[in-house]
Design goal:
Layout lengths: L16 H10 L3 H13 L3 H12 L2 E2 H8 L3 H13 L3 E6 L2 E6 L2 H14 L2
Antiparallel strand pairs: 1-3, 2-3
Length: about 120
């Protein structure tokens, strides 16, 4: 009986070279995979997820998001900066007020797909 740390291996080394080569050709390059890793890292914070959900419903300013989530404006601004750097949210200025919204429909799709997965 194997313990949970034992990994089963093929009996032959390179027995499936055609499969390995096909998959290798389809793999994104390291820079792309790094960018994808960074994107998923952004989703690893519940405050950022909550902000994204808020922005599903409406474009909002920092002070409104802070009030809604019961957090400081500084904390919300910090998270919005990370979301904006990841191109998940965008901003627009109206006078002295900056309003934030989702960058595009892909953001909503990613969140909804993740939610569907955890709710299965």
């Amino acid at each position: 009986m194997q313990d949970r740390y034992t990994v089963e291996c093929c009996d032959f080394i390179h027995a499936h070279e055609d499969v390995v080569e096909r998959v290798r050709k389809e793999m994104p390059n390291e820079d792309t995979l790094y960018d994808l890793t960074e994107l998923f890292r952004i989703f690893g914070d519940s405050t950022r997820i909550r902000i994204l959900y808020v922005l599903f419903e409406s474009e909002m300013c920092v002070c409104d998001i802070a009030l809604l989530l019961g957090m400081t404006q500084s904390a919300i601004s910090h998270q919005l900066r990370a979301l904006k750097n990841a191109r998940l949210v965008k901003s627009r200025r109206d006078g002295k007020t900056v309003f934030y919204s989702l960058a595009d429909d892909h953001v909503k799709t990613m969140i909804n797909q993740g939610l569907a997965h955890v709710c299965e």
